[in-house]
Amino acid sequence: MRDFSGRTAFVTGGASGIGLALGRAFGAAGMKVMLADVETGALDAAVKSLRDITPDVRGIACDVADADSVARAAQATFDAFGHVHVICNNAGVAAPGGIETLSLDNWRWVIDVNLLGVLYGIRSFLPHIRAHGEGGHIVNTASMAGMSGGLGFSPYTATKFAVVGMSEGLSAELKPHGIGVSVLCPHFVRTGIASSGRNRPAHYGPSATYDPASRAGLIAAEINKCVEAGIDPADVAARVLSAIRNDELYVFTHPRMRDLVDGRFAAIAAAMDAVSERD
Ligand SMILES: NC(=O)c1ccc[n+]([C@@H]2O[C@H](COP(=O)([O-])OP(=O)(O)OC[C@H]3O[C@@H](n4cnc5c(N)ncnc54)[C@H](O)[C@@H]3O)[C@@H](O)[C@H]2O)c1
């Protein structure tokens, strides 16, 4: 999709961090923007802040872990702006814990938001994009955690690998229909992700506790520091717009992460070679 002007973008997790930066970048490119988020106070502030860029911005309260809530947000977007062209399934949460914290509540919450939330977005908008026939683009936010298991046995890693896999499959299926798919895989970005617990609904129980001196505790502390030192979300948004324009599937933001991916693929290739030698 090379032409943004006059088209419409829908962004989940649009009240903060990468989602808010995406909304700003789409607005600056002449698009109409619907920001969707579960944190309504931050959402209102985000919408107000975008009005400096474009009058065509709205906000909708939406819990991406709830299929009906996403369907209602989609309908509100069609009602407000008509045809929708760019969907960013971006809302996400992180819950710390590794083998020390096998909390089913953590796993269910992170899977519901990070994985099923992406599915619900696709399900609510894809038939509409196919029907209007003007082309479109779906951006699913994964992470470098979806390219390498560096964050250990965590629901976050599991969901981000899943989002990469489903985006690859979706891209192949939608190519003949003129609809692009990108999967965004940033490393650390300066956002509110380390305080994801602010949006944890009570029905998932309290955040799991863990010993700060455990591996999970040390990883969590390190991650918080890295997020604070992360890149500007605006740089991530600029990469996403360029990827939509050029119809790129993989969207990376941190070139030095190449080593991480190379290391994983080298181990996989070596294991494949070992099988070939045995046959
Ligand atoms: N910040 C990083 O270092 C980093 C790195 C890689 C990937 N990511 C991914 O980027 C995406 C955006 O996160 P961010 O870093 O901007 O964090 P953020 O916390 O600043 O923004 C996330 C937004 O999602 C919203 N949200 C949370 N649960 C929701 C729900 N159930 N329904 C609707 N909205 C919900 C939050 O209210 C918040 O506005 C996430 O998918 C995250 O996993 C972030």
Spell out the blueprint of helices and strands.
Elements: E1 8-12, H1 17-28, E2 32-37, H2 40-50, E3 57-61, H3 67-81, E4 86-89, H4 104-132, E5 136-141, H5 155-174, E6 179-185, H6 215-228, H7 233-245, E7 250-252, H8 258-278
Parallel strand pairs: 1-2, 1-4, 2-3, 4-5, 5-6, 6-7
This protein binds nicotinamide-adenine-dinucleotide.
Order of helices and strands: EHEHEHEHEHEHHEH
The beta-strand count equals 7
**Percentage of helical residues?**
40-55%
Describe the largest sheet. Answer: 7 strands, parallel
Could you tell me the strand content as a percent range?
5-15%
Bound molecules: nicotinamide-adenine-dinucleotide
The structure class reads alpha/beta
Average pLDDT for all residues: 95
Strand order of the largest sheet: 3-2-1-4-5-6-7
The tally of helices reads: 8
